[in-house]
Amino acid sequence: MISYIIRRLIMLIPVLIGMSIITFSVVHAIPGDPARTIVGDKATPAQIQEIRENLGLDKPAYIQYFTYVKDILQGDLGTSLITKQEISKEIKPFLAATTELAVVAMLIAVFFGVNLGILSAWKQNSWFDYTAMLIALIGVSMPIFWLGLMEQWFFAQELDLLPSNGRLDPRMEFDAITNFYSIDAIIQGNWYAFQDVLLHLILPAVALGTIPMAIIARMTRSSMLEVMRSDYIRTARAKGLGEFWVIYKHTLKNAFIPVLTVVGLQLGLLLGGAVLTETIFSWPGVGRYIFDAINARNYPVIQSGILILATIFVLINLIVDLLYAWVDPRIQYGKGE
Amino acid sequence: MSAHIQPVPFTKPEPPISPEKEIVESPFRDFVRAFLRHRSAVIGSVIVLSFLLIAILAPFITSYEYTARSQALLQAPSVDHWFGTDEMGRDLFTRVIYGTRISLWVGLFAISGSIIVGSLLGLIAGFYGGWRDTMISRIFDILLAFPSILLAIAIVAMLGRSLSNALLAIAIINIPTFGRLMRSRVLSVKSEDYILAARAMGMKNRRILFHHILPNCWTPIMVQGTLGFATAVIEAAALGFLGLGAQPPEPEWGTMLADARQYIQLAPWTMIFPGVAVALTVLGFNLLGDGLRDIFDPRMKQ
Amino acid sequence: MNKRGLILSLSVTLLATSFLVACGGKDPNAGSGKSKTLIYGRGADSVGLDPSQQTDGESLKVTKQVLDTLVDYKDDSTEVVPGLAEKWEKSKDGLTWTFHLKQGVKFHDGTPFNAEAVVFNFERWMDKKNPYHKGDYPYYGYMFGGFKGDPGHVMKAVTAVDANTVKFELAKPQGPFLNNLAMSSFGIGSPEAIKKDPEGVKFNQSPVGTGPFKFVEWKKNDSITLAKNPDYYEKGLPKMDKVIFKSIPDNAARFTALKSGDIDMMDGLNPDDAKLVEADKKLQLKLRPGMNVGYLALNTTKKPFDKPEVRQAINLATNKKGIIESFFAGYAKPAINPMPDVVWGFNKETQDYEYNLEKAKSLLEKAGYPNGFDVEFYAMTEPRPYMPNGKKVAEFMQEDLKKIGINAKIVTYDWQTYKDRVGKGEHQMALYGWTGDNGDPDNFLYVLLDKDNTRTPDAGNVAFYKNDALHDTLIKAQQSTDQKARTDLYQKAQEIIKKDAPWVPLVHATVPEAARAEITGWIPHPTGSDKLLNVSIGK
Questions:
Q1: How is domain B30-67+80-300 classified at the architecture level of CATH?
Q2: Which of A4, A212, B136, C390 suits C455 as a labelling partner, its CA being 20 to 30 A distant?
Q3: Local structure of residue C387 (DSSP, 8 states)
Q4: What is the ipTM for the molecules in this complex?
Q5: Is the pTM of this model over 0.90?
């Protein structure tokens, strides 16, 4: 197992190198000049030239690349061209904001997805089943940014029931310690803040969690149907165990791996992919951070940001794979893939 | 994000199953019968065909032009304007109708592109193995590890904001999906007895590839392609929403949603209809894809 | 048997849902009632909070509250009033300025504000060799002709005469000198705080000044919190205990937040939403006077615009009212002069060209173009503050031009390319605009219309208009430091320009903004940053 982990980690290296090269080339091929963004519209060519020299942007691309790799190897993710802040520091709250959102979205997805799936299978071919599966189908087909907009329009604007943007009422006295606001609120024992954080999470998390929820519901349903047909259940039933709970338990076990796969995959994707949800709900997350950096030609932020996200993505995949083995010892890791 | 809604079974290599046997044994008529018996496949294909018809017949469905302005700004849906009008007095029904063309066009070309490039790479990797496999698989790993929407955004930023560049970006980010699928299929088909037999008889690589392996791989690719079509439509709308896809005055659904957003207070209908159009199109392709998979892959049948 | 299980599972689901919804009630303690907190909603986060390093409005909006300048602008115009300097005098030749500072003022970190502090700040900005000169200081270089050692650098020396007197010696007289000093970029920071930050990083994140509000916290891309400075030199001010600048990028989303009371005031209102604000009793509409001008530059070096009659004809064929109603939702003033009336020195006497197509046509005939001509019409596609939709404005003008026989073809490029091409003078006629920096007429008239600024590739005068009489007037005004004399000179300059018509001045865009009805004392300033001294909730 340990040798497997090590091998997987080693395999990560060429992927990261490849990514850094692609990111670097794409980013530097984007027309436009970060120097212009820094000094503004009214800068003279001389001013721009000076800044380019200060930033090392006048050097040939390959030298810039090697400088960048050298810095990364020394653990230096670089400095934002625009804010002059260290990226490793600056990115933390953004990462935390998106992670918190993604985790809550997944919790919603798993909770509702699994239960919907089980109940629909239990009541197979009933109106409940049809409704639930229709919802699930629509759920997978929904452009989430549109869903977000509609939520915002209906729940925040028309009903004024839930906050439409941000992570917390700015009037609240609150210290961001870990930058996971729900955890921070608990640490500070501030229950109003905790409640407010949850309220702010609902709309974006539901938008973000809809697709995984739909996928999970459909998977759980088919997995449950299989369980219900199996001999094992018949035996259990014969033994007189409470039927629903037997099936519930077994389905949960059976559904675990596919659900885990969805969660793992989506969690990794959501980190960088929540940019639309973040845009709509003014969520100060990492997707928006990198998106803004692309618009401002903020090279180091784009490069390091994408590198961080990719590393996290790959690590999550690794963890998911390891969890498989832990859950289902039949799965063995020896050969390549 | 929305980019990866493909059902999970395809993300892990599946044990070899032999859909070809189903087809070989049952002629085309059986496929049609199975298809017609499959509810979601039928509904899906009806939706898809309707949108196709709408796209083709757009000029005959509506009497307005999609760029034609009028004095009726931001009017609610009425008999004259079924979906209301936008901030420039343009008929929204017309714009949504014409938007169908753009979305189907993007879906078709982007997914065809990813299928061609992805399958080719997957085929080479799976069939030849060795260093080619290693290299191509690493490329797929790299592309998959990228946050796909951010990669698409960066590509569009590099090439310039336009519909065709958005299309290209969507094609690129979907390559590994098809590539990996193709590779795993090739690997499983390759070890089938009859291929081994053909090889033992001294059949040439190319002949094996084109006459035996490829025909047995294209079904899952087609199923995945249908589902990928749905994804591409959403991705195009997402890029349009961020202002990176189709440029005004093109009536692209995502772009329309972005424009409509500032009138969320005044005219919510400008936001509702383009979104419904996206969702319906995607739903159609998802249903069709699901149905096709069930038919071709009995193991998944419930 | 299994019914119970089903019910149980269902009720768990229901419970979870109802828990989430139950939280929906508004929490009483979070309300604004007790501590007086003001939330200002805006479209983007600040880049940094050291004003001398920033050029973006979102940064300066915040630093305006934290760092004071030596002199300041009046509440509603760019007229200069005392700031940290109580009074000042200048020598006859305009080369020496002496500022007498307010006494007893303290920085937020408790250190005293005095002449040394002022000198420290200016040395830091102007001297590239200064150990604390970390960064680009773009506005310093831009307003004072470069840095120490540069040939155009205006500032010869800044010295402390005594604890409360600072002397500026200039290399040459600079008319807009006072207006420059009033810019938020030249806010005076605490030398102690700057010295504690040799890397030049921390001060940009948590500035220390003498302003009405202290910096408290910055949550990136989310909010910046400031708290009242209890030792502020104007007693009883500011009226709020706390000000929070909250970023909500989308205009419509920000407006939703305003309506639901999540924020108290906002800028960047969609012009179309202004109607909704006016109809809503809980809200009030605020109009920010625009220190900008949107214009159509006629390239005087290219045919047919080398003829003044042709240029005048285009002026006569322009329906400014129509443009403003159609594309600014009425929120703009028709431009008569190249600068707006919020800038002092504006010539009220100037007669604008009337909208008269027949007269225009006859002028064209006089100039030798009885059948009109073909022309390329450059229009920008990206929204600018002075021109939210250039392409539509161009299409609108195209119609009128056609009526007098001019066949205009609209040409567009992305903004970067557009600026390059126009700066090189490749256009015949081009929509363009300018947002003022310091509220001095020089910042409009000299920059945009003097022959000195026709140098390519970065011309500011994109009409490439060269008039020696105008040049003499502008240079005289630039080097004079007598307000009265300068006013006269600039008024004369505006007359000359009007007659030669190198432009069609189109609009000064006004920016609609909104606040909750109970907000008082907010006066949107033409520079875009308002000191929130008198703003309060209720009375």
A1: Orthogonal Bundle (1.10)
A2: C390
A3: B
A4: 0.85
A5: no
